[in-house]
Design a protein that fits this description.
mainly alpha, rod-shaped, single chain, 2 helices
Length: 67
């Protein structure tokens, strides 16, 4: 029967296991950071869209007043 990844890692030297675990933790931290940045980017986009919507409304109002 085929071995899974965890079993293969357990067969490796302790040093290799430590390196693999450290790299896994780095990748997890990077992924969490990426997810946080994506959420912040969406918040900023929504805020900008709201401001742009207000500007468009104000332009329409000012154009009507000037006419």
């Amino acid at each position: 029967m085929a071995k899974n990844l965890r079993e293969k890692i357990k067969e490796m030297s302790i040093e290799s296991q430590i390196k693999i675990e450290e790299r896994a933790q780095e990748l997890i931290a990077l992924e969490l950071t990426r997810q946080k940045l994506r959420k912040e980017k969406l918040k900023i986009r929504k805020a900008i869209q709201l401001k742009q919507g207000k500007v468009i409304i104000l332009r329409k109002i000012s154009n009507n007043v000037l006419l």
